[in-house]
Description:
375 residues; alpha/beta; Aspartate Aminotransferase, domain 2; Aspartate Aminotransferase, domain 1; 2 domains; 8-stranded mixed sheet
Amino acid sequence: xxxxxxxxxxxxxxxxxxxxxxxxxxxxxxxxxxxxxxxxxxxxxxxxxxxxxxxxxxxxxxxxxxxxxxxxxxxxxxxxxxxxxxxxxxxxxxxxxxxxxxxxxxxxxxxxxxxxxxxxxxxxxxxxxxxxxxxxxxxxxxxxxxxxxxxxxxxxxxxxxxxxxxxxxxxxxxxxxxxxxxxxxxxxxxxxxxxxxxxxxxxxxxxxxxxxxxxxxxxxxxxxxxxxxxxxxxxxxxxxxxxxxxxxxxxxxxxxxxxxxxxxxxxxxxxxxxxxxxxxxxxxxxxxxxxxxxxxxxxxxxxxxxxxxxxxxxxxxxxxxxxxxxxxxxxxxxxxxxxxxxxxxxxxxxxxxxxxxxxxxxxxxxxxxxxxxxx
Length: 375
């Protein structure tokens, strides 16, 4: 069986984990956390980057920093992970879902403004499969209506939009280091604070609402509770594991893009292209090989393809079930305008295996089995 995913491990994780044990500093905010934060800050050229226990917690952090409250409205695509909605629903906000573009599966920037009301507080978007949303138009709308923009960049480390790292353009960006991501530590995440006005407060909120960093810096003689917050710092074990992957970030991305390109070349052949619709990558976007997907005719054909691939030793999966159609989505959100593409396109989408240890020969085999389905 060729699995859908296999978490990548470099040659350095074990050595760094042993360093943590020898240093006798296991909780968060140690040397490896500092290294990771600094690496992310420089890589994204952002004001501040802070590791968190997950991308979910990074999103919750943005909710606290934006002071989301009961009655606020948050605009986002329905084709996204539930954490993107929960982070704001927990603070009492209403989610306003907007349709997606069928070419990139990202939020349709031309549908956002009609969803804006006097209660709208933020636009929360996901760059699906590491392909950027139309950030120029989205930031223009946000500036016009005085809204925050949160980039859910869980798919995006080392993916760019007009040369800029995705996650570094809005007011906040959030990253995921779950084991299914390109760079992983089992469970982990980070918040990118791109607006310096929130830099100091982000550290306070992350550290349980205390001013412990001022205490460590000798600015105050003891630390105390000064703001709302929670415990968002991962352990040093997670940070050490993750830092090993950051050290070869470009190598990891290069291999994954090589595999994605092999898929694309194979499935662009006439005997496949007439049946499949491949992912669209705008010229100004540079993806990172996080996901390779194609679209089939409809839900039933996808179901048969999954079964066919499984019979031939290949695990393939679909992705998000649109949030607005779920029980929670009906309670905590509403759909703005027409669901023209969200449901239809999500039911056609199929993801193929893509991980660092996958080989081009295996990609070729998978593509042959995809083509075989239509014979």
